[in-house]
Amino acid sequence: MKRRVVLVDDHDLFLSGVRAELGDAVDVVGQAGSVAEAVPLIVELDPEVVLLDVHLPDGSGDAIINAVAPERPGVKFLALSVSDAAEDVIAVIRAGARGYVTKTISGPELAAAIERVATGDAVFSPRLAGFVLDAFRAGEQVGGDAELDELTPREREVLQLIARGYMYKEIAARLHLSVKTVESHVSNVLRKLQLSTRHELARWATQHRLV
Amino acid sequence: MSLRAFAPSSDERVIAGVCAGIAQTLAVDATLVRLVFALLALAGGAGILLYLALWAWAEGKRVWIAGLAAFLAGCALLGALGFSGRSVTGIALIAAGLALAWRQGGSFHPEAPLSYGGIALAALGAVVLLSDGGTSTALLAPGAVAGALLLIGGPWVWRLAMERDVERTARIRSEERSDVAARVHDSVLQTLALIQRDAENPRRVASLARRQERELRGWLYGDQPLGDETASLVAALEAAAGDVEELHGVRIELASAGDCPVDASVQALVLAAREAMTNAAKFAGVEEIDVYLEVTDDAVSVFVRDRGAGFDRAAVPTDRKGLAQSIEGRMERAGGRATIVSGVGGGTEVELHLPRESS
Questions:
Q1: What are the structural domains of chain B?
Q2: Which chain A residue has its CA at the smallest distance from B234's CA?
Q3: Which residue of A has its CA nearest to B222?
Q4: Distance of CA B214 to CAs A187, B62, B198, B245, Å?
Q5: Contact across the interface for B303 and A164, Cβ inside 8 Å
Q6: pTM of the model
Q7: Are residues A51 and A73 in the same domain?
Q8: Residues of B with CB below 8 A from A83's CB?
Q9: A11-31 pLDDT, tens per residue?
């Protein structure tokens, strides 16, 4: 059963490129080029996964997530962007995206990421793993919920290996874990990233008027 | 103008409800307002004229009637206060000049012309006022004249200042624009030209595009200016990665957590990392290399990883200098170490580790 996917990006050239790269791996049911277009389309089509550009002409990707989530809580979002600004990425993740990949990702890798997101797992590119490690650096905790504001040593190890370019399978082998365990560590990190009130995250969120 | 409009009160009115309306707006007792007007009425009928003026103004029609009535009220009041006819005429002329000036161009609109008629009237008024020898005006006159000049000339001066501001903003904008144009020319346009020339070579095109993307992104989203590789280790590694990409047609994914300035030993780390990337690009036979930089309080680590051919360390001839000198020797001299993990068919990872001086 192919995943039903909606693409949201304002660059037609890029959209057709992604469609071609994905080929038959997924079922692209619709596409939109702006926030205003995307929200009603996603609500109507109710896809499994939305591939979302972080920057759109009339707003940012997190605006779509915030508008769609109350009506279609089952839709999963995967951010796909060229933007490397940490705050943009963190903003869209905190709005509820299940992951972030850069646009240089290959077709098969993207298809795998869509599948992973559709089943409820998180997808971290090396770059996102770096951002998260940066935001959760040791010794800078300020108040808040300690459980949410700290990464466990194991989570840190997993993220570090993702940042170093290791696949989940390779990480599992290296740390003597199952792939499922690695996945659950990553999902935990995603949850912390979305819920933590940690100083750096709060700062990014404030800059982008998310709070 | 910040005058609060008031509505004549229809509930508590005695004549037209003006006093009650004022009392409501100012939140004072209506009797008090009426008393003030009654006293003013005794001063040559000024109170009556003022009442008429306020009524006409509140009704919202015949603004000129309101103005005229207020004007006459002022004259009556000044006369009643003992000013000579001459000084009243002078003040009246100044007031008329002011009114004209403000009507014509006194609004703070940048396009408004300076009102010469208004200035002439006010000047005439000033002359009349100053030529009056009466003691009652000796103190008042210079102040009135100065005030009039300020009210007429002020907006004009202010306007000039505004214009200069607008001009300066425009100049800054055009400077920024040419700065952007210069950067775009040096980077993006050059790259596009190279891409057109090398259109037959897809690898070269891809690496050119990628290098340009990295550079542009660093400029758009990064804090450091383009090409400044001394302030930031991330920027220095990006530049090194860009060079390797361009030279060898590979893709390098750079992830980072933290950053630090580049001193001599960090520079050695950058060169070692560059050598590791070059080795991976040349020998691993892969299209993508992952590089991860981690800066903590006590150490800087760089990981260069490929999923390529890998090699057996024991089988590397000792005269091959890349690994031993450019990477391991360099890191040791800088006070750090290099760890190379590789196996035939299993890819290679070079880990560079440099302790940081306590800061």
A1: 18-165 (no CATH), 231-355 (3.30.565.10)
A2: A130
A3: A85
A4: 29, 68, 19, 11
A5: yes
A6: 0.60
A7: yes
A8: 221
A9: 888 888 888 888 888 899 999
